[in-house]
Amino acid sequence: MTIIFQDLFEMMLHQHLLGPSTSLNTNSNSVLQSANALSDGVLLSHSQQPREELKTTFETREGIYRVMTLAEYSRPRGPQQYHMQGVLNNQSMVHSGAPVRVSFVTIPKDIVDNNDTVTSQPTSSSSKDEPEDYWSDKLCFNVGKELYVYHYRGTHTAADLARPIDKRVYKGTAPTVHCFNQELANPKSCSLIIGFSTGQLQIIDPLDRSTPAPISRLYNEDRTYDKSTVTCIRWQPGQPNIFLASYASGNIYVYNEEVVAGTTPPVWNFYKQGEKFAVYTCKSKIARNPIYRWQIGEGAIHQFNFSGPDAKMMATVGHDGFLRIFDYHNMELMAMMKSYFGGLLTMSWSPDAKLIATGGEDDLLTVYSVNEKRVICRGQGHKSWISQVQFDSYCCTTEEDTENIEEKQNNSDVNFRPGPPPSTSSEINTTPVMRTHAKRATPLSATSTLSRCSFASFGTINGTSAAGAGVCYRIGSVGHDTLLCLWDITEDMLKPANIQRHRNSTIIAPMAGLEIQTSALAGRLDILTEASPAGNGGASTSSEPSPAVKPVEKPKKKRFHRRGFTLGRLNVGSSGNSNSNSNNSILPKTSNGSVNSSDKKNNHLLISQISCCEETRLLGSRLCPRIQDVPVIEPLMCKKIAHERLTVLEFRQDCIVTACQEGFICTWARPGKGGGNPNGPKRDFINSPGTVSPDVGGAQQQKPNWAGYNVTNTNEYTAMNGISGQQPTRSNSSYNTADDDKSAQPYRVNNHYRWQN
Amino acid sequence: MGANGSSQLEKEITGESFIGNEHYYGLVNFGNTCYCNSVIQALYFCRPFREKILQYKQQLKKSGAAKENLVTCLADLFHNIATQKRRVGTIAPKRFITKLKKENELFDNYMQQDAHEFLNYLLNTISETLIEEKNAEKDRQQRHGTIKKGNITVNLAPATAGLEKNLETAAEKARNETTWIHEIFQGTLTNETRCLCCETVSSKDEDFLDLSVDVEQNTSITHCLRVFSETETLCGDQKYFCETCSSKQEAQKRMRIKKPPQLLALHLKRFKYVDSLNRHTKLSYRVLFPLELRLFNVSDDATHGDRLYDLVAAVVHCGATPNRGHYITLVKSNSFWLLFDDDIVEKLEISSMEEFSGMSSDCSGNGLQMPSNNQSQQQKNSESAYILFYQARDYDALRPNHHATHASI
């Protein structure tokens, strides 16, 4: 079977000329209106229900997220056109077809310079016909049998659906997944791998404008390697020519772009084996693709990803309900976890690669500690299967972050750290793996300030032994229930619950925990000014960037629970909180115990220690604890944000991106973001005419902002915010919002059996 | 078509690394009997049920020709399928259908019937028949005296009692009698009510053969079961009479599963009566069903509360209205899935299971689709699971016991 590519680019442009505002009509609310108008007269339908209106904002502790309705991407057609062209079947295909996926690439700058990069931009881009897009991020998404590549302007300008960089329509097969090669991307070229429902892989370069059009490379063209659907594609971090593709058949194939793609069916040589997985190589005289085949578990592999830029670990989730963590380079199984029931559909590494979040057919979020090889907690809030989980690395405070803070508080009064240096800027907006790297180098400013606040306030609030911990992970999840949920994993939840008493206390006293959390939050803010050594109040001091502070290597980097210790050190630097000792004394044994155990565990990290094969009954074991044996948490925020099932969730620096099966890709500006656009405020009202077109003038107006956006350096960052008249930094503005926002539902531990008490 | 499909399937299953000697037989439709065919197929692939039915057939053979009833017809049909030489083909369940129509006037027409109603009717009829036979057997034993048989000790006591009294107890027994139908399908719900005044919790247990759960758009069956057991507050007119307080009080009530059955039959309430339309409509909501399931809505004192279930069969309703449309069955056999559409049997990719979960409202009712030219599309898309059969995975582990204790029934 061969793929036929049709470039309908021209045709589509023409369509757009018919109605310049059709792209705006594709937003879901417009559909709602036209639907209602029609349904009165035409529809005889039995179960006709008007679409419920979707909220355009949601609120969390750190502030209000707003959907940028003009920044919505979709296939460039209005509903009316659908009708006229009789593409109804096509639309139905979309709903039942492959999940809509979105992938991003950030185009790095040619000249890497810390401070004055912006100046080089106009000159280099002036020769291009799309100057304002030259450096912009690119976005790719698939809907039905179609695939689109667009410039992505984030929260800053509206989506211009009239001008896709690339559009492809496939026959006989549908694109299911795609992935940009971030490491080799530049303004003139970037590789995009596309995987298909029928197993083929295609590499295209949507930025290459040379004529004749470059020939795309195909792998598994004749489906001789695998006939099943491609489920996930990743480039191997640090190896710009190696990519991996997982299949519904349960295989992951490793390809090297520089090696010939064999045309004959591969003959597989056994290479390495472990429990329920095996690695094969291709039997061939010369090196050929695929270079490896990993056969893992039973049934489809739904997703996989690497732990970080070193590709040290690779985790997979699949139909058999197992999360498997491999030592990628040694090809050894390091750890496993089983869903409560049913398949696991999605997984995500925490920025520090210590935790993995999974979601699947049990409707549960499961957080797994890689180091301790145990389930930390389960999250219940979704009403159906979870299709994507993602750590929000911009809202996570990891151990390194908190240690850096301590360090700084000891050394200097500056409590704001610079954004990632330009060298890592290319990795900022890509996959979580990439971000991890950037983050490790210099953890993000917003969250570090947050954690600092909590540290500063620590010990001044009575009885806040567990709340307000420094380490905090933010997880987001979207599902078939059209809900977006956000979850916070706080340090107290990361403590090993070895003792039964501990477990009970976590579960049984949810309300107490809730109150503490809230009061701690408020308390932190009250105390912020006096606790800060800078003494000027958090908001103003933290706006000062400090490029001088560099990431600090800590000797005992991997310690997991040493809050008591941390507090002691913190107090040296900050304005002495005498109560910290009492806090310290509350949990002395836990701290010591866990330090030892986690240190020990780290030594074994690379040693494969799978004992699960002996476990005949999974439930109740470490692989799959009973529901009452681990805390069950509720989401911080849970909101219906689409009419169709959600398939995509991406956290970016200034926004959250979601997509649903209808093919609408939404950008939610983070608190304090998105105001930089003059059109911004208008977007919040659904019922406004919505005819604000993304005209050229508007785009040019934004150019300064735009430039600032693209660079992740804090200088521009601050400047941009200054222009828009927002709070000087995201961190502080968001934090202040949290102060006002008492209604946001804080984290709490849910007692599953609460009713009886 | 049917023959072609079968041979295709035959090819496919012989190509597989195929274990066991399973038979896949389509059932001929005698005019709107797909409600019956679909349920029979599902039950055939509920192994505990099939084994009992085939056992019954064996007993029947031994004990000689019994009076023909629905159970014997079903046993014959199952036996017929299981003993075919070819692995795939079609069979006409003529005797069963004829008997069904004769026994119950409800089904004595060419109208489409509700598959769930039929399932209920069938299970109840089987269990009643079994009890009758058991009682008849007992009566015979008593009448003939207990000398001939070896296992008489229990029966001596009632035998010595007066005949009238004996009949009474028999009737009493019949009501509480359990048969293998109950062993397989019966679970227990516990209805807990907590008085908000005195905090006293009272609970009442009730048995069920299947659970009927309300469906919501874009949810999973897991969620529907959670909602089934959600706490509701009784207030206003619905106040609850608390015996401790001796007065009507506000109370919280909820229903949770105390004893999860071996084979959990879940009926999705997709047919809802709409007052404004004065008829039943179908809720084609997209309700996902995982292939594995554990119950969240079990009571604290539940036995086997977290047992793992595997989906073994699903009866799917196709079409937009309750009265029209079609029933098909999805069935798991060995490691793969099959679709039974009357006489057509096809292999099913596991990835396409999700297509039978229903459709999102926004697809069915966004007003963009013209009813006229889109009827077939809609019809196709409203293939939605209606009855799900989940079998406890520990069933196999329990089997030896099971056989030993209940082989006599």
UniProtKB/TrEMBL annotation, chain A:
Species for this entry: Caenorhabditis angaria
Residue segments, region Disordered: 113-133, 404-429, 532-598, 672-704, 719-757
WD repeat boundaries on the chain: 337-378
Annotated Pfam families: WD40
Gene3D superfamilies (UniProt xref): YVTN repeat-like/Quinoprotein amine dehydrogenase (2.130.10.10)
UniProt entry tagged with the keyword Repeat: yes
Key words, A-Z: Repeat, WD repeat
Biased composition (Low complexity): 571-585
This protein's name: WD_REPEATS_REGION domain-containing protein
Superkingdom of this protein's organism: Eukaryota
Biased composition (Polar residues): 114-126, 586-597, 719-737
Compositionally biased region (Basic residues): 555-564
TrEMBL record, chain B:
Cross-referenced PROSITE patterns: USP_1, USP_3
GO molecular function, one term: cysteine-type deubiquitinase activity
Keyword Phosphoprotein: no
EC number assigned by the record: 3.4.19.12
GO CC, alphabetical: cytosol; nucleus
Xref: InterPro entries: Papain-like_cys_pep_sf (IPR038765), Peptidase_C19 (IPR050164), Peptidase_C19_UCH (IPR001394), USP (IPR028889), USP_CS (IPR018200)
Claim: Hydrolase is one of the keywords in the record: yes
Catalytic activity, as annotated: Thiol-dependent hydrolysis of ester, thioester, amide, peptide and isopeptide bonds formed by the C-terminal Gly of ubiquitin (a 76-residue protein attached to proteins as an intracellular targeting signal)
Pfam families: UCH (PF00443)
Residue stretches making up the USP domain: 25-393
Family: Belongs to the peptidase C19 family.
PANTHER family the record matches: RE52890P (PTHR24006:SF733), UBIQUITIN CARBOXYL-TERMINAL HYDROLASE (PTHR24006)
Protein name in UniProt: ubiquitinyl hydrolase 1
Organism expressing this protein natively: Caenorhabditis angaria
